[in-house]
Design goal:
Number of domains: 1
Low-confidence stretches: 7-12
Number of helices: 12
Strand order of the largest sheet: 1-2-3-6-7-8-9
Distance between the termini: 30 Å
CATH topology: TIM Barrel
Oligomer: single chain
Radius of gyration: 18 Å
Number of strands: 9
Helix content: 40-55%
C-alpha cells in the first residue's frame, strides 16, 4: 500500500489546481496568479497541481509550471513543505487544441522539460496525463516507472484512467502508484469505481474539476440546491460544502479545485475543517 502522498497532505486535505490560470486562451495576470498561490499556501494547502499543457498557447508549454515555481520562490513560508504535482502526455496544438502523446520517449522528454520549468532536480509527483490510444498503456507506464527508478520523480501517478488501467499501472510500478487524478463532481459521478479502487489500494484520488469545471463553480449552488441549503445553514459557501462532501466520500480523496483569486483559494482550503453531519450528507447527492 502506497500511503506516501496521503501522509504528505497533513495540513490540508484540499490541494490547489493551478490550471485555470493558464488555459483561458490568453496570458493570465501574473501578479494575481502569484497572490492566489500564496494565499492557498498561507491557508495551509500543501499540494499544488499543474501540468506542462496548462498554457495559453502551444508555443508556451510549461507556462503554468514556471508560474508555480515563481510563486514558490517568492513565498515567505517554507516552500519545501509544498508538494508540486505536474503532468505530462497531454499536448497542446496550434489553434488552442489538445492532443495526446504516450510514447515513452515523449514522456521522458516532457519530464525533463518540466524539471527545468519547475527548477527542481526531482519532481515531487509526476502524473501521466491522459492515455494515448495509439500507444500500449503498459509501455507508457513503463516509462513512468523508469523516471521513478532514475530518481527524476519522487512519486508517480496517472490521470483519466479506468479501473483496469489503475490496476495495470499499480502492478507495473511495483505497488508505488501514488495517485489517480480523474474528473469527479456533483455533475460528474462516473468515477465512483475508481475512487473505491483507490481506497482499496491505498492510492490518493485527486478529483479534477471538483466544483463542476472552469466557469461553472460560481453557479454550483444554483445547479445543486441541496449544497446551497446546507451552505446557508452553515454560513459558508456552496463550494466549500461541495468540497467537504467530496472529502467525506473517501479517506483517499484530495480535491484540487482550480483558483484564479486569493479569496476562492482560501475558501476552498477551509473545506478541510468543515465536517458535515450524517443528516447533511443525506441531503446531498
Amino acid at each position: 500500500m502506497n500511503t506516501r502522498l496521503l501522509g504528505h497532505i497533513t495540513v490540508s486535505a484540499v490541494g490547489l489546481g493551478a490550471m485555470p490560470m493558464s488555459v483561458a486562451g490568453h496570458m493570465p495576470d501574473e501578479g494575481q496568479s502569484i497572490r492566489t498561490i500564496h494565499a492557498a499556501l498561507d491557508a495551509g494547502v500543501t499540494l499544488i497541481d499543474t501540468a506542462d499543457a496548462y498554457t495559453p498557447t502551444a508555443e508556451e508549454v510549461g507556462h503554468n509550471e514556471r508560474l508555480v515555481a515563481k510563486a514558490l520562490a517568492s513565498w515567505g513560508g517554507d516552500a519545501g513543505a509544498a508538494l508540486v504535482a505536474t503532468k505530462g502526455g497531454h499536448t497542446r496544438t496550434a489553434g488552442g487544441g489538445w492532443d495526446v502523446d504516450g510514447r515513452p520517449s515523449y514522456l521522458v522528454e516532457a519530464c525533463e522539460r518540466s524539471l527545468k520549468a519547475l527548477g527542481v532536480e526531482a519532481i515531487g509527483l509526476y502524473q501521466h496525463h491522459r492515455p494515448d490510444p495509439a500507444v500500449p498503456y503498459e509501455e507508457t507506464i513503463g516509462a513512468l516507472r523508469g523516471l521513478l527508478d532514475a530518481g527524476k520523480i519522487r512519486m508517480a501517478g496517472i490521470s483519466n484512467a479506468n479501473p483496469d488501467q489503475i490496476r495495470l499501472a499499480h502492478g507495473i510500478l511495483g505497488g508505488r502508484l501514488a495517485s489517480v487524478q480523474n474528473e469527479y463532481s456533483p455533475r460528474f459521478r462516473t468515477s465512483e469505481p475508481e475512487i473505491d479502487l483507490c481506497e482499496e489500494l491505498g492510492v490518493a484520488f485527486l478529483p479534477w474539476s471538483p466544483l463542476g469545471g472552469i466557469g461553472r463553480a460560481g453557479g454550483l449552488g444554483d445547479r445543486h440546491g441541496a449544497f446551497a441549503a446546507v451552505a446557508a445553514e452553515r454560513g459558508v459557501s456552496p463550494q466549500r460544502v461541495c468540497l467537504a462532501w467530496e472529502l467525506a466520500r473517501s479517506p483517499v480523496m484530495i480535491p484540487i479545485p482550480g483558483a484564479s483569486r486569493p479569496e476562492s483559494a482560501v475558501d476552498s482550503a477551509a473545506a478541510a475543517d468543515l465536517v458535515l453531519t450524517p443528516e447533511e450528507l443525506e441531503m446531498l447527492p
